[in-house]
Description:
Elements: H1 20-28, H2 36-53, H3 64-76, H4 87-106, H5 136-144, H6 150-161
Amino acid sequence: VTVNIGKWKRGGxxxxxxxxxxxxxxxxxxxxxYTKSTIQGYETIRKHFLGFLxxxxxxSQLDAKTCxxxxxxxxxxxxxNGNKLSESAYKKYMKSFKxxxxxxxxxxxxxxxxxxxxxxxxxxxNPKGTKVFLEKHELDQFEQLDTxxxxxxxxxxxxxxxxxxx
Length: 166
């Protein structure tokens, strides 16, 4: 029955007896060939997850609501230095958490099926805009401008003609 409802995979682990963060740190991570900084990132995720719930949870108890609440927690979480986590930090942690769940589930380590964090959008990539440069006639106007900051004007013109600035 547990195989049919997806709580235990043939040849896998029993998700009703295995804790999520313990599994991630002690069983899943050692199988991966990650750098030390990536491993430290996953240990930080574990610390934040335990701070969020106050305890580890069984893998079978993980659901989409818990994942969404964890992401909300990361957005308002205060780090060890007393400041809120930066946007890039909490997005990085959530992306790594999602990656762990997706790899563990899709590769069949934990459960068959879809990751509970599948529907969470961590952030949209900002498409690179086209660079806007000053036109030649605009640079000519700027060159003719009378200003007390001639040295700054000349530096800007040099940078503009050599395509250093937008």
